[in-house]
Structures are given as C-alpha cells and as structure tokens.
Design brief:
Blueprint: H1 2-26, H2 28-32
Length: about 35
C-alpha cells in the first residue's frame, strides 16, 4: 500500500517536472521578456 502511494507520487512529480521542462524549452522567450 505504501509503495503504491510512493510510486504514484513519484509519477506525478515526474509529470510536473516534464511539463515545466517543456515549458522552459518552448517558452524561452517568456523568460527573456
């Protein structure tokens, strides 16, 4: 039960990290302005 919860948490963290990573790559101009 605990392991499953940790796995889900890790997946969501990776998902958020990936989205932020894509945003940083595609929206580079946003950081400049």
């Amino acid at each position: 039960r605990e392991a499953a919860r940790i796995g889900v948490t890790r997946q969501s963290i990776i998902k958020v990290w990936t989205v932020e990573r894509l945003k940083a790559e595609t929206g580079g101009s946003v950081n400049e302005s």
